[in-house]
Write a structure and sequence with these properties.
This protein is an alpha/beta fold. It is built from eleven helices and eight strands. Helix 4 crosses helix 5, helix 7 packs parallel to helix 8 and helix 8 packs parallel to helix 9.
């Protein structure tokens, strides 16, 4: 299915207060990227009363955060947020990646609350799809902050879904970095399927996410990892996605789909080595929308994630995501509004992109058309199918030739 869902209720959970999740002016994960996205989406008519509705959320309580995170982590985050002069490296706080900032607990609780609200709206049927672009903090572990992530909003939202009646939750992570925190938290829980497509850990933080990482003894096959070679572009990425993800989701039959849309796989991102374009990322967002309609009757919660080309990439990629969430995909050739470009120039002193496209055709060769055993990407895809498919009752050779 590639059509829209404009007749259904859809939402994005956002409040300007969410941008208080801010590690400082020199940190790559600057909240301006979300502000610019929301401004671009509004200027293009993606958000609004007759489009994707912008809704608020309450901060998550300590009790809700504690359904995933250890109390000693929550206490450490609160303590250092009140006195940001210290560090607590045992809890991952005060490192170069995850520095301490004033109000850190409150800011993290807002992000978690927004993802819970998105999950609640979809699970209760209030909305068909809902997004939280500030969310997607997938590296945080149960007892430790990591990789720009203080609390793991995704894991708390998934836990909320399980505690409120969901029997099976599928999570797909398309950030360039392995979704290690979510995977680890649900490592031995057969009710949660985690799928991560990422640049190989041999080249990139956090160094995990091997094909052989398949879940705990009570949940073999619940973790699916697709570690892609560095410099993989649109065609290779989409080939890998379509060779694995829809098949495993169909076999798992989740009640709801939760996705993480880090756009740091783009060729211009300063923190990775992949070669995707805006057009390839748009195709990935659309593919996840389509598979949600196929396997979960459209129940879909989408979050943000990484992405550090703050002007050239993140606003365009995530505005395409919001348009797809809202059921009104944008023409990739659309011009960016003059008002938005003027805002970028006046506020940041840089020139914003003129179009919503990188001018690429994100076509790919389907796995069923045959494999090249000499190509590193095809060897990876084959290894994933060989390891994962039998654990879900699938034949790894079906549709290969």
């Amino acid at each position: 299915m590639s059509g829209g869902n404009a007749c259904q209720n859809t939402s994005v959970v956002f409040d300007p207060a969410f941008t208080a999740y801010d590690f400082g002016p020199d940190h790559p994960m600057a909240p301006v990227r979300v502000d610019l996205t929301m401004r671009l989406a509004e200027a293009l008519g993606v958000t609004g009363e007759d489009a994707l509705r912008v809704v608020g959320a309450e901060p998550a309580t300590d009790e809700l955060i504690g359904t995933v995170h250890a109390q000693h982590l929550i206490d450490a985050v609160r303590r250092l947020g009140e006195d940001p002069s210290g560090t607590d490296l045992e809890h991952g706080l005060g490192s170069e990646d995850t520095p301490v900032f004033a109000g850190m607990h409150e800011a993290g609780a807002r992000v978690v609350g927004a993802s819970i609200e998105a999950a609640r709206r979809v699970w209760t049927g209030q909305d068909l799809h809902s997004a939280n672009l500030m969310g997607g903090l997938h590296h945080a572990m149960a007892g430790k902050a990591s990789g720009f992530c203080v609390y793991n909003d995704i894991a708390v939202a998934v836990r909320w879904l399980l505690d409120n009646g969901a029997q099976r939750v599928a999570y797909v992570d398309i950030d360039v970095h392995h979704g290690d925190g979510v995977e680890r938290i649900f490592w031995d829980d057969p009710r949660v399927l985690t799928i991560s497509l990422h640049e190989t850990g041999e080249a990139l933080f956090p160094g995990t996410g091997a094909v052989s990482d398949l879940g705990g003894p009570q949940a073999r096959g619940s973790a699916v990892n697709i570690p892609l070679p560095a410099t993989t572009g649109d065609g290779g990425w989409l080939r890998a996605f379509h060779a694995v993800v829809p098949q495993v989701l169909r076999a798992f039959q989740p009640d709801i789909l939760v996705t993480q849309h880090g756009c740091d796989s783009h060729m211009d991102d300063p923190l990775s080595h992949m070669m995707l374009t805006i057009d390839g990322q748009r195709a990935a967002h659309q593919a996840l929308h389509d598979v949600a309609h196929e396997v979960t009757d459209g129940k879909w919660v989408a979050t943000g994630g990484g992405g550090y080309a703050l002007v050239d990439v993140v606003p365009r990629s995530w505005t395409h995501l919001l348009a797809i969430v809202g059921g009104r995909p944008l023409d990739p050739g659309l011009e960016t509004p003059t008002s938005w470009r003027d805002h970028v120039r006046l506020s940041l002193g840089v020139q914003a992109p003129f179009r919503m496209t990188d001018g690429r055709d994100p076509g790919f060769r389907d796995w069923s058309e045959g494999i090249n055993p000499e190509h590193p990407l095809d060897r990876t895809i084959k290894a994933v199918r060989d390891a994962v498919f039998p654990l879900h009752g699938l034949d790894p050779w079906v549709d290969t030739w």
